[in-house]
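To whoever is on call:

I kicked off a structure prediction for a single chain this morning and the downstream step that reads the tokens threw a length-mismatch warning. I double-checked the sequence; it's 274 residues and nothing unusual in it as far as I can see. Pasting both halves so you can look.
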Amino acid sequence: MNPKKTRWLSGPYIVWMALFVIIPLIIVAVYGLTNMDGSFTVQNVLAMGQQVHMKAIWMSVQLALISTIICLLIAYPLALIIRALKIKSTGFVIFLFILPMWMNFLLRTIAWQSLLEKTGVINSLLKAVGLSPLNMINTEGAIVLGMVYNFLPFMVLPIYNALIKVSDDTLNAARDLGANGVQTFFKITLPLTTPGMISGITMVFVPSLTTFVISDLLGGAKISLIGNVIEQEFTTANDWNLGSGLSLVLMVVIIGSMAIMSGIDKRGEGTTLW
């Protein structure tokens, strides 16, 4: 089929991108670079340098990194186990990981709120066996737990997809040449699955950095992430200009982190890590 005759098929996608991606970004940029009078200003962007905002973004980066590392440490062994299963069982196991994602994100987080609160299910069980209740809700640990639970599938699936592309013949050849299990993993498996790891890290880190629902429900008012600050500027303070300015800075941070991940992926694909 002639490519020139099929270009029109991209028309709906272009319209969709223009309406729901490009135009909203332009609106955010206009609000972020103007004040309430409509005059040009960079004060909304520079406001990120204020102590309260720096504290929020630093806390966001910290918790996002912790959540991403935990997801990676859980997901990689899990993906290895899934790959080692028989083909008939593998599809069912993948289905079990995807199944929770069919439930609404908000409902999944509220469920964890019910489990972790002072009178929740976990503390009720602890009391039933004579143990002291734990202070789990409204803590940084609760937020990290919520992030890991919600975003873990986004780490497992890319790593698993990378693992199934590693041929058994390649691994067997390494063993035939005298490599033990550890050497085979670090010299063959890990380098070949680096693209999947990078993809998973990006897919977990970015939503963890920008989330505000998880921190609202599991962190309460005690812990404020940059997503909460931006959300409050739009909804509570009704200052769309400041909220948009902070969003622009956060967008630059995200784009920078994705660029770094892409650079690592390009250098690491198909090569050894050391």
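Update from on-call: the warning came from a stale cache, not from the record. Cleared it. Sanity check on the structure: The radius of gyration is 23 Å.
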